[in-house]
Amino acid sequence: MIIAYFLISYHIGMIRSPTVRKIEILAFILLTVSAAIVLVPISRTMDKALEGVRNNLVERLENETGLRVSYESMSPSILKSIHIKNLVVSDAFDSSVVASISKVSVSYDLFALLKGDVSGMLKEIVLEDGSMGIDRAMDAQIISRIQALGSKRGKNAKDGGQGIPPLRVRLKNLDLSFRDGSTLLTGTIASGNLAIDSEGIAFRLDSRVSVNARAFNKFGPLSSRLLIDGTINRSYDVGSARLMLSSLEGKFFMLSRLGLVASIRDGVVSVSSIQDLQPMDLKLSWDRKENSVKGSFNCDRLYPLRWIRIHDGPASVESLRDTVFTGSADLDWNEKSGLSYSVAVDSSIPAEFLGGGKVRLACSGSDKSL
Questions:
Q1: pTM assigned to the model
Q2: Largest CB tally within 10 Å, which of 26, 245, 301, 363?
Q3: Alpha-carbon separation of residue 367 from 31, 189, 333, 336, 364 (angstroms)
């Protein structure tokens, strides 16, 4: 603004007297000196405050979790944010790298920073271009310490999520991996957002995930694009979320799309299908207070094999793509009476498969009888 003021004034001064131009130049110099007098002490005070907060956070992180933080450079943007380059999180005991982030940006509240209010100073955290990997066996101590810390804070928290300060977190281009014995879970977060405000928590995640486990070696690794978005209130008792799986693929098959909607209200967790993707209605609810589960499934002329592709399958299997299903199924379970269910499904098999035909399944029973 000071430079803009000088340029505009100088341009106008071209048509004014030399005396006016000299006064404007002197005014510009005075403003520049005044700004330096004010901003230099603020900058020094801010640097000291940042150094104190940094040392406090790093020391607490290492003491409570056994993780050590290092970085190539930190560039404070006065009165606004901090930019960190090549942040590395490692095990303080053996120096093994747990996470590496190329770009980290932290926006803060200046007044909270100067007061030393660590929890209230953070406004937004942005993580870009990095990776994080956890091995359950090799990183057992880290996991144990983090779980113990979370359990301790959970017992001390009396207000649920009410005490969490407002914060925004954004993720971009992060590779994740988690290994537990023979099971390997990997993923890439293309973009992710978490926003905490006075009303609740909103989240959105767009990623690609892959699972490789011994339990389904025959099917090969399963991979899919995963999109999750939703909201939940501060008490964690009212919320909703949408989950979309697209291009779920294994070694021999591919599922085009699958969508589910989940909600929680009054202690009841409900899950249902998105009907604009498939001509079916799937509902599942869990009453946490009663510890009971209810489920239902209804479909009308459903062609499940049309949105499930079999790679290199025999011609007989390909001819089943036009098999149509119509029917319903219900399930009920609670601690007192146990499980009960009923199924009534009709299917029409196309003539291309062994001459075709119709199959009807109708049954009901419990966990003790059929």
A1: 0.72
A2: 245
A3: 84, 42, 9, 12, 10
